[in-house]
Write a structure and sequence with these properties.
JmjC domain-containing protein; binds zinc ion; alpha+beta; single chain; binds 3-((9,9-dimethyl-9H-fluoren-2-yl)methyl)-2-oxoglutarate; 8 helices; nine-stranded mixed sheet; five-stranded mixed sheet; RmlC-like_jellyroll; 16 strands
Length: 339
């Protein structure tokens, strides 16, 4: 269990060009926890025992108990695992009711390719991994088809506790529990998700850097129709300031989560996550919840609501123009020199 964030050897970590505050770490019974979640502010909850039944989920245990299924594994030549949504490439769009299969969009570089393998092969390749080899990141939705004892552990999670959180904060339904097993050094680059996330760390440690939705203009997300939708175009470690000048206004918050910690990543908050030393690999399990009902809209509207509006404008224009390339031109015509 990480006792306290401050004993972290920060000098080990990558240095970034932007300031980083600390995400509060609070015991899960602290009343401030629910105040922060209600305000959609990130917070690390300690001592919840949410996935205590999984504290034994190291590679040996998972290798023996994850069953005989094929698991999704992403492979990357670099330390970055920037996910790529194939579905965006050939989107069927209806034009006046007629389904028009789009011509496949121009070829995009695929930084991480996905494959499947049995847990035994994954574990072997992780143990044999040495610097210079391609990196692996297992990402698999947990379900009843996992091995019997893993399912037993899953059932013994603190579902009462997490369901009470879901109800108290009016979150929608639980969509996924993604099991994540990645090498130390793997980086999931800066992106946001459209779901509330209780991110439970099981083995090893992860450095999590978060930015609020209001910093949308500093992070230059790809267009919504792009396979890298929801992900920043900016390489935080090596920002191209000529293309992304507003990146100099970036300021975030960070934490290092260890076994037993649960990080609340609010919906639409940007997060950049890295598996860090000393463990050779990390095991995490996230709990993704659909957004709750919008309810009474209060003005001025909040940052994350503006992101949702901008996404809808991009989608509507792409649909109307039937050619995503023209959307940029139209938007520039609409605003440049006028607003
Ligand atoms: C990078 C990877 C393996 C991936 C590849 C291709 C498609 C999807 C994904 C995906 C989705 C979620 C995560 C977990 C976490 C980041 C982290 O812990 O690394 C995170 O962002 C979250 O919990 O929201 C990681 C991945
Ligand atoms: Zn995410």
């Amino acid at each position: 269990m990480t006792t306290d964030n401050t004993d972290w050897h920060q000098h080990d970590f990558k240095k970034y060009s932007f300031p980083l505050g600390d995400i509060p770490r609070l015991h899960h019974t602290d009343p401030q926890v629910d105040e922060l979640i209600k305000k959609k502010q990130p917070v690390v909850l300690t001592g919840s025992n949410l996935v205590g039944a999984a504290s034994k989920w190291d590679l040996d245990y998972l290798e023996k108990n994850m069953g005989n299924g094929e698991f999704t594994v992403f492979i990357s030549e670099t330390d970055k695992f920037k996910f790529f949504d194939e579905k965006k490439l050939v989107e069927i769009r209806s034009v006046a009711g007629v389904h028009v299969k789009d011509r496949p969009a121009k070829e995009y570089p695929r930084p991480a390719k996905s494959t499947t393998m049995k847990i035994q092969e994954f574990a072997r390749r992780l143990r044999e991994w040495k610097s210079g080899d391609e990196r692996l990141y297992l990402q698999q939705a947990l379900n009843s088809s996992s091995g019997a004892s893993v399912v037993q552990d899953f059932i013994r999670f603190r579902w009462d506790w997490v369901t009470a959180k879901q109800k108290l904060h009016n979150w929608g339904k639980l969509t996924y529990n993604l099991l994540l097993i990645g090498l130390e050094g793997n980086v999931t680059p800066c992106h946001y998700d459209e779901q509330e996330n209780l991110f439970a760390q099981i083995h090893g440690h992860k450095r999590c850097i978060l930015f609020p939705p209001e910093q949308f203009e500093c992070l230059y997300p790809h267009p919504v129709w792009h396979p890298h939708d929801r992900q920043s175009q900016v390489d935080l470690e090596n920002p191209d300031l000529s293309r992304f000048p507003k990146m100099t206004n970036l300021h975030g918050v960070q934490t290092v989560v260890g076994p037993g910690d649960v990080l609340y990543i609010p919906i639409y908050w940007w997060h950049h996550i890295e598996s860090v030393k000393p463990a050779k690999y990390s095991v995490s399990l996230n709990f993704w919840y659909k957004a709750g009902p919008v309810g009474q809209v209060e003005y001025p509207i909040k940052g994350y609501q503006k992101v949702a509006i901008m996404r809808n404008v991009e989608k509507m224009l792409a649909e109307a123009m039937q050619d995503p390339e023209e959307v940029g031109t139209l938007l520039k015509t609409l605003v440049l020199g006028r607003f």
